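Model the whole thing, not chain by chain.
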Amino acid sequence: MIRGLFFVADGGDSLRERLEEIKAEVSQAINDGAHIIVLSDRDADAEEAPIPSLLLTSAVHHHLIREKTRTKVGLVIEAGDVREVHHVALLIGYGAAAVNPYLAMETAEDLVLQGVITGITPEKAVRNLIKSLGKGVLKVMSKMGISTIASYTGAQVFEAIGLSQELVDEYFVGTTSRLGGVNLDVIAQETIARHHIAYPPGGAIPGTKRLPIGGEYQWRREGEPHLFDPETVFTLQHSTRNKRYDVFKRYTDRVNDQSTRLMTLRGLFGFNEGVRPAISIDEVESASEIIKRFSTGAMSYGSISQEAHETLAIAMNRLGGKSNTGEGGEDPERYLKMASGDSKRSAIKQVASGRFGVTSDYLVNSDDIQIKIAQGAKPGEGGQLPGNKVYPWIAKVRYSTPGVGLISPPPHHDIYSIEDLAQLIHDLKNANKNARVHVKLVAEVGVGTVAAGVSKAHADVVLISGHDGGTGASPLTSLKHAGAPWELGLAETQQTLLLNNLRDRIVVQADGQLKTGRDVAIAALLGAEEFGFATAPLVVSGCIMMRVCHLDTCPVGVATQNPELRKRFTGKPEFVETFFEYIAEEVREILASLGFKTLLEAVGHVEFLDTKRAVDHWKASGLDLSPLLTRPDVTSPLHNTSAQDHGLDAALDNQLISLSDAALKNKELVRIDLPVRNVNRTVGTMLGAEITRKHGGAGLPDDTIDVTLHGSAGQSLGAFIPRGLTIRLYGDSNDYVGKGISGGRIIVRPDEKSTFNSFENVIAGNVIGYGATSGQIMIRGVVGERFCVRNSGATAIVEGIGDHGCEYMTGGSVVVLGRTGRNFAAGMSGGRAFVLDLDPANVNTDMVDILALPEDQKEILRSLISDFAEETGSVVASELIKDWDSAIKRISLVMPRDYARVLDAMARATREGLPVDALVMEVAVNG
Amino acid sequence: MADPKGFMTTERETPTRRPVDVRIQDWREVYEPQSFEHLQKQAGRCMDCGIPFCHSGCPLGNLIPEWNDLIWRGDKTEAINRLHATNNFPEFTGRLCPAPCETACVVAINRDAVTIKQVELRTIEEAFDNGEVKPLAPDRITGKTVAVIGSGPAGLAAAQQLTRAGHTVAVYERADKIGGLLRYGIPEFKMEKHILDRRLVQMEKEGTRFRAGVDVGVELTGADLRKKYDAIVLAVGATKWRDLPIPGREFKGVYQAMEFLPWGNKQALGEIEVSPINVAGKHVVILGGGDTGADCLGTSIRQGAASITQLEIMPRPSDERPDSQPWPTYPMIYRVSSAHEEIDNRMFSVSTEEFLGDAEGNLRAIRIVETRFENGKFEPVEKSHKEIRADFVFLALGFTGPEQSDLISQLEVKLDDRGIIARNADFETSEEGIFVAGDAGRGQSLIVWAIAEGRSAAAAVDKYLTGETQLPSPIEPTTRQLMV
């Protein structure tokens, strides 16, 4: 047991000396044969303060590594300052084998004993605390892709911001800290300041608060400063609603002036005026030109209300900027022009891991397609929409089940490598050759390398998103301490792209709490040419930062689907327009003062940024921002000047399109027969896009264009194909067959000359039917893993699948006439799966029941299987049909419980003449 | 948080006032009791906002979401602890504050605000009833001495904070009793004086010394004070009233509101049988449409005036918040105080041109004219002159700053160009060790600002005396209410 305390009277020196003593004590203990060492900060008193537990742990950990004795002992940390998941994660990440958060435990106990928390015993409360800290750490580990605690211990998967190199080299060896920062004296000083709260030097004053109020997650006057506080919210709303540029300036002044509040890195920058002579503002490009570089952030319809979502879209369309669907799909009605001449269509269509509502129509109606790899508000996690917000109209657009919460999987199931990402970029480019394809990344160490990969993978745009992206619905473990500021990520991206000669072929976009013209100008100088805004335009639309987005109780109708609350929405597109006009105006003022005529001219000119701006704050003294301002010594352009080569010219689809002319123009039947090879990637997708473009989301009648292919198909056969296109493959195929299929038909069967049993052999690869929304996939043979993940409406039938089949499925039907792999139906909340000779051990029953085949499904299934037999010549299928009575006994139905409940409610509503939507929500939310 | 859907399921309800015909028979407070369960439901309407604008609208920084939640849960003890942590005198503000917190309440964007003031009031009253308001004497004495000049809310707040911090504090008051405006400005029907007295008992037990009836500057000079005390806090208020120097001002019957109201309070408490300024059976005109005017109104009603008319030069405010004063600012709207509920005979957009008297020099009427606001000033409307019968006129036209007292000149503190006592960012005047708090340093303001000033000035004094402070400082001298 080693005491982790130091004498406050002597400040930093005492802390330094005590750490040295502790190291010696630990070494001695090991010499004496100790196997477990407890570092404890218990028994602090008026003279001795606890050493911050992370510093204590890491100091010992690295001392033992230096001594080469680290493996001889386990470190147990007993610390009062541990109370959040992040704290535990850090301690483990810096070497702790066990953590005892005794003060948090005693606090939980005390809260129950004092009656603040009721309905629970103190013991249970403490157990819950430990359980949630444990689960939180698991969640953090999973976000980092680490599956065992042994691998996480001492892994140091952290980046420090604001620690001096000297401190890191001594106590946190190997940790990245790019900007320097505080030393041990400042840490001591902060600790002593906290110690003084507990032991006021002049004695305690009765009647004052016992504890400071905090204010990390909610604004409080005496607490942590937030960029959005009462004054900035008010002045932003008032200025944009009443067209008061003077009040807007009060807003931006308050946001920009962080001299005493130290909230962002950009707050520490100044502009170097005088590098170029200032010019008259009349010489600077117009505000409307600048606004074309602006977009609103990805906020889904579902997370925010229809009113809020459409307000942003209309405003951006009027301005010539771009709004973003977010990952919740978009009602096709919005693709049509409104009577007023306005458009509610979101120019940017997001494609996230959930693939909600990603149809051919959706993709064709986009200017930009954004692949969300991660989001700033919650890096490493997918979007989440709690069940109480999944109203029937939201479920419809998302192709999901009302009242059932939606969690986007953390990874895209079709991206496990940079090559996969390149493939998805290619697929989406095929789905709409006119759209730019974006890739959205979160700023963190190494993002520059990823961005270089993205550029090589032929993305047209890369978006660097800051860590502080706002969402009221993020888990608290993701709100803080995850991701890095965009200033860091953007600087790294720009430098890496320039060094690798990749900058000129890609557009760089930045977002993450951009709030003022100054923010935009700094982002431009650091290397961004386009800019995203989310929270600010939402505040302009009425958001007052309630942070109850997940509760569906937003009182201003922004982040709610409750019809009564939506009526309270007061935002108008005009307000949002004014906001962007004012931002652009501020940008113009800055450009004029720096001597730039256009915003593009300023991109990447880091030499116009000044980090020597005096920040008079004791904690900022050690910061060195110069690494952000390095400009690689290259002569290539600092911004995008050329387009990516997507290689669409070589696609087989060019041939298919010209052969399908009669169908596209006159809806005549077209039959095509061609060989295919595995170099032909994404076959049918461009043709599908042509169908949608000419005939809308409904497509053409089934089988209007019937393409028969012979051979081995490459990746993504028939991705996103709409109704009216049928692809018959004789042979085999690579991964992603029917990815995102939206109405078309794909039939795969072995080559006619093959002699093996189809039901025993693999015919197609992984991730088939991922994100399918409608249509039909028939495959005679066994396929790989993750079959029909996130299927939300297609019918698929196959003779056997690998692991994780039907994961996260929300609609449609899947028939497996053969074995399934493990973890079948995990997270499945809608649709039905029929499996022959199902092994129940392979089913993840968290959300589904295994049922005998119900009466009302028998005929539907029989006709499906018999079609399958007919279309593919499946032997398995035709034998089942032959002896149907015994077949039905062998087939199980895997049925999601929530889905069954909602179907029941719908049936009851129809029977009893009740309002369907209301009843469904009632049943879904309250059971 | 309180009930997440409370604001959707419960409407705002404030306690009812006693029937007019009953309450004008006495001087007691006008509200009827409300059940605690009722109040809990009202507290449950709080939305626990990410940005609680109420908490920013309150100069004290009251932790409104916190105690709304605690009351909703029924934890009265913790609620009063949280409330007292930011507000020395919730029983005063709960009765007298115009509640900028409620106009800033997020629910009030599109519905009626949470009844914050009522929750505050009930929290402290429950605490007094349950014996939970105990003296909080300091653990140790610093040996430093402080004189607080003036015993209004700012002076009392400063005194309580400094006493608890261990300093020896004496509060000087020139009137015969401690309390300043609370004692003689606020009528009994708005706050009964025993409410003030019970708080003074607590303060005395904590060690604050009260010196009423001492006119500092006359009986005790500035030099005496400086000799005797390590620091001085001037909390003398802004009692210099605005006058109306028009013809006839000298007639008998024209009084300043603050000449009238203190007598009313003494009468209400039975200290005198009849007020020297007694309006029973007389015709009264009140000039000025603010709170002081309403206080004159309620007092006149209870004295039994024959008629009462209240005049205001500004146009009648709108019933709803005007666009120029958006949420969350404190708007000028048409308000009906309890006194207006009793008799509401308000005339707007009128100006008084002359007081008319009889041969004995007694006021008999006033001549008024309708006004129109043009080119930045009030212009009389032609042919709109009118006479109103008046035996008494009370001038409730606001206050311009501290009085030019002997004390101020003796202490040599400088005034700023508005005529209020100048001070630096630490509430310190031009003279070292002399601090200023409340209306004397801010100009006429609200009671909640006065308490906030007292608290902040106390922190500054504590730091001056000991080098550092643990006392909270909710505002800076320059902090102002959020406005467009």
